[in-house]
Automatic annotation (TrEMBL):
SUPFAM superfamilies: HIT-like. A motif (Histidine triad motif) lies at residues 100-104. One of its GO terms (molecular function) is catalytic activity. This is Histidine triad (HIT) family protein.
Amino acid sequence: MGHENDCIFCKIVNGDIPASIVYEDDYVLAFTDIGQVTKGHTLLIPKKHQENIFELEEDTAAQLFRVAPTIANAIKKAFDPAGLNMVNNNGKAAMQSVFHYHLHFIPRYGKDDGFQPHWEDNSDNYSAEDLMDIAKKINKHLS
């Protein structure tokens, strides 16, 4: 179903490159990440090549997120993590390295488990009016 000749994830979908398959149906494929940021790190991808969230078709998103809780709960039962991060990077500036949409499931075992996201709190820089203005600008472009 993949169409990108040089896309590693399309090659996995097509069976040209082996992967440790966690789940597969007609629309999506889940497999363990070769890098294993933490034990159980799994990727969920659409079989159809779509580069990122900006290209992701509504039906594809529905198929992915229909399966996402199942994958998360299987990881939870298998490894009993303290928590789970779901991460999706879109575009080079967001550190996307494979340009085929993929959702990371990263089990969390504690602050020194190898995954260190950092969230900056800029709430002091935005008034309630600023937040309303931002919301209106985004809302204006919803289709």
